[in-house]
């Protein structure tokens, strides 16, 4: 028999474990309440719900905090504006099914979820995402969630929302101070302008803004790219604007935090230092603060005096300006010609535009339907138009009245054209009169040279059918050059006409290559035109690579390249037009009902045929490297065609695997060995196809699907169902409304078909 002294440590450990369990419950119901200091833990212990006191405060609040880090981090507060004075707090489901925080001593409700359609027997659970949900156990409907009622922090899987019809808003509001969670002076959310942007407000007035959204990024944030905000994306649908933030790497903990001083921070957890590090902040400089230099003023944080007036303008209040108070802004030196009574056309004196380079565009932009040239004409014809610009992804933007919140950037920003009086244009040109003679002489010499170059270029244009491409991906001399004898060349003017001057309404989408437009040739043939973005270095490489790869391929399940355009700096690829768009636009949308079980199987089979052709049956082995639903296009009969070969790689007969230091593709679809080691092969495409297959049969997107209860992505969720022998739960429920119920059940029960 063991001595009693040996069993004491075990008994103490057991006692601690029992006490730990007794202090924590897993859910809240009408019969199961939470009393201070009890807590609720999420399934995997990532987050904890309970009562807490902020630093230097004795008040008690119901909140949620992160348990995965060593630093206590509160991410949500319920009764932020009505604290408890002692530990008499109770959290419960009320008789009408709503969540309530009660002061048990005074029998007083301090906070209420205030849901009109809550079920009487509702249950509250804390998910591993940090989301507290109120759910009808009978239907599974979530009637309320903390993610749609945030405090001062924004977590992955949340969405900022603004609905201009219902006035629904999901925004974060700062604490009043680090020890006071009550609503502070600052809030952050989406401003649903003509061209939306995100804004920090101070007491309801704009304090900082991101600049307009161009479909991929906010153009007023320096250094922002399409991978910014951990895959953030802004979607506009039925007057509802929503900005989501995805977390591709679950191991990387981060959140967005609006601190009491009005600074928005992206905080990431430093595992070595065991603390939160601010990876990005806004506003960061004086110039980031809204309207720092007033109307028609430009702010540059690198200058000694951060504010200056636009050319053609002067300080409105010179004394204040000299004292460093720039908020009064600037005024025009001279009135505009269009504002005078006499006609500017009659006296030959017409207003014009001065180019202001690399700036954050002013606030209150209007979007109009116009090409780049038409944009200038429309602004000039309207006397109230103060400036204009044309930005890829947005189109023509014009400003009326004062120009507010212009900031000068270094190696970033948009060029805008500011309207000035004729005299200011003359002054601008007059400053160079001393150089006129030199310019004339130089022009004569250079003009002769340019004429010779033009003749050469014309001859070169004639021989473009033998245009040669080179790429760093090609390692063998025999593959270094590609002749395009059979690839038709399109004139730029024809493509410009076909796309209605690359009109915004004809835009089908945009990627790393650049925008894609729908067009119609003179003979009535519909086409898709991929236009290389002039600012995309990646796009130029992808253009070259795509022509090299796809010019060698021909298969019914690969998109057909009709030709290309190479004039001046213009680089365009012309494809057959796919009327039904990309696969993701159907399977992840209400239109997915058009895809019954049989049609989905046919699509899967034909994608396999296209992939098999790339890997085994074509003259060259091609590894696509970016196979996903958005790169599968559907023709009029919903036949799939693999597209977008900008990142594809040609393999040779003796190659089975390759390595790269430049990992390209889409997170969520890339195989682990490719992401971590840069190794790719046929297996890389097979992995991507596996993800795509799961998306097709489930109707769920891997990069945005999240099983809140178990903190799983789509792959993890599928594996869990596999292990539970419950694959039928993975299948898109809309397909059970079809005539293929028996076939679906048979397929889901036949495990061999999933290996």
TrEMBL record:
Domain spans labelled Apple: 338-421
Top-level division of the source organism's lineage: Eukaryota
Domain Protein kinase: 502-755
Entries under Pfam families matching the protein: B_lectin, PAN_2, PK_Tyr_Ser-Thr, S_locus_glycop
Keyword vocabulary terms for this entry: ATP-binding, Disulfide bond, Glycoprotein, Kinase, Membrane, Nucleotide-binding, Serine/threonine-protein kinase, Signal, Transferase, Transmembrane, Transmembrane helix
Residue intervals of the Bulb-type lectin domain: 25-147
Protein name from the UniProt record: Receptor-like serine/threonine-protein kinase
Record-stated family: Belongs to the protein kinase superfamily. Ser/Thr protein kinase family.
SUPFAM superfamilies, alphabetized: alpha-D-mannose-specific plant lectins, Protein kinase-like (PK-like)
Annotated PANTHER family: BULB-TYPE LECTIN DOMAIN-CONTAINING PROTEIN (PTHR32444)
InterPro entries given in the database record: Bulb-type_lectin_dom (IPR001480), Bulb-type_lectin_dom_sf (IPR036426), Kinase-like_dom_sf (IPR011009), Pan_app (IPR003609), Prot_kinase_dom (IPR000719), S_locus_glycoprot_dom (IPR000858), Ser-Thr/Tyr_kinase_cat_dom (IPR001245), Ser/Thr_kinase_AS (IPR008271)
EC number from the UniProt entry: 2.7.11.1
Signal peptide positions on this chain: 1-23
């Amino acid at each position: 028999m063991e001595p009693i002294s040996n069993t004491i440590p075990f008994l103490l450990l057991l006692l601690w474990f029992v006490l730990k369990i007794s202090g924590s419950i897993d859910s809240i119901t009408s019969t199961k309440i939470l009393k201070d200091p009890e807590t609720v833990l999420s399934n995997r212990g990532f987050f904890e719900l309970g009562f807490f006191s902020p630093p230097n405060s004795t008040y008690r609040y119901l909140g949620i905090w992160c348990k995965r880090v060593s630093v206590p981090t509160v991410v949500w507060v319920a009764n932020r504006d009505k604290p408890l004075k002692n530990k008499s707090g109770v959290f419960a489901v009320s008789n009408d099914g709503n969540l309530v925080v009660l002061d048990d001593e005074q029998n007083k409700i301090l906070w209420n979820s205030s849901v009109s359609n809550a079920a009487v027997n509702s249950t509250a659970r804390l998910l591993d995402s940090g989301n507290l949900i109120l759910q009808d156990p009978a239907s599974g409907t979530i009637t309320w969630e903390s993610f749609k009622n945030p405090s001062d922090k924004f977590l992955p899987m949340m969405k900022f929302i603004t609905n201009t019809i219902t006035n629904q808003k999901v925004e974060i509001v700062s604490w009043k101070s680090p020890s006071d969670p009550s609503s502070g002076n600052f809030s952050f959310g989406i401003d649903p302008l003509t061209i939306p942007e995100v804004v920090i407000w101070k007491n309801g007035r704009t304090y900082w803004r991101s600049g307009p959204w161009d479909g991929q990024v906010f153009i007023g944030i320096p250094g922002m790219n399409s991978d910014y905000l951990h895959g953030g994306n802004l979607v506009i649908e039925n007057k509802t604007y929503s900005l989501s933030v995805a977390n591709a790497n679950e191991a990387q903990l981060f959140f967005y935090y609006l601190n009491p001083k009005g600074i928005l921070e992206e905080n990431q957890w430093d595992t070595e230092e065991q603390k939160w590090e601010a990876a990005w902040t806004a506003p960061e400089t004086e110039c980031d603060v809204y309207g720092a230099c007033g109307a028609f003023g430009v702010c540059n944080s690198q200058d000694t005096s951060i504010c200056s007036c636009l050319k053609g303008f002067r300080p409105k209040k010179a004394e204040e300006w000299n004292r460093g108070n720039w908020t009064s802004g600037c005024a025009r030196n001279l009135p505009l010609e269009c504002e005078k009574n006499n006609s500017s056309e009659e006296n030959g004196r017409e207003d014009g535009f001065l180019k202001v380079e690399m700036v954050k565009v002013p606030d209150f932009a209007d979007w109009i339907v116009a090409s780049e040239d038409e944009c200038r004409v429309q602004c000039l014809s309207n006397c109230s138009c103060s400036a204009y610009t044309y930005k890829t992804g947005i189109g023509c933007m014009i400003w009326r009245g004062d120009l507010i919140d212009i900031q000068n950037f270094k190696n970033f920003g948009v060029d805008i054209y500011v309207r000035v009086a004729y005299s200011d244009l003359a002054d601008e040109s007059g400053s160079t009169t001393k150089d006129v003679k030199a310019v004339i002489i130089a022009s004569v010499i250079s003009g002769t040279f340019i004429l010779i170059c033009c003749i050469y270029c014309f001859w070169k244009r004639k021989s473009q059918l033998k245009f040669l491409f080179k790429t760093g991906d090609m390692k063998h001399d025999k593959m270094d050059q590609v002749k395009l004898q059979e690839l038709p060349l399109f004139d730029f003017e024809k493509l410009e006409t076909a796309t209605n001057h690359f009109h915004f309404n004809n835009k089908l989408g945009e990627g790393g290559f650049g925008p894609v437009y729908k067009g119609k040739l003179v003979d009535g043939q519909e086409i898709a035109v991929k236009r290389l973005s002039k600012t995309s270095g990646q796009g130029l490489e992808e253009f070259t690579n795509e022509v090299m790869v796809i010019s060698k391929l021909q298969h019914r399940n690969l998109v057909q390249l009709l030709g290309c355009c190479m004039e001046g700096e213009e680089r365009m690829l012309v494809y057959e037009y796919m009327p039904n768009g990309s696969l993701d636009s159907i399977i992840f949308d209400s239109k997915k009902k058009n895809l019954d079980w049989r049609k989905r199987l046919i699509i899967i089979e034909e994608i396999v045929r296209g992939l098999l052709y790339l890997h085994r049956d074509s003259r060259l082995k091609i590894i696509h490297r970016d196979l996903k639903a958005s790169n599968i296009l559907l023709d009029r009969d919903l036949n799939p065609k693999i597209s977008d070969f900008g990142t594809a790689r040609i393999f040779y007969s003796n190659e089975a695997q390759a390595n790269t230091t430049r990992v390209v593709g889409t997170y969520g679809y890339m195989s682990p060995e490719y992401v971590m080691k840069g190794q790719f092969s046929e297996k890389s495409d097979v992995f991507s196809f596996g993800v795509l297959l799961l998306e097709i049969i489930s109707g769920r997107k891997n990069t945005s699907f999240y099983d809140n209860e178990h903190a799983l992505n789509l792959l993890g969720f599928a594996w869990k169902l596999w292990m539970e022998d419950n694959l039928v739960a993975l299948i898109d429920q809309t397909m059970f409304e079809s005539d293929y119920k028996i076939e679906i059940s048979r397929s889901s029960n036949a495990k061999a078909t999933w290996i």
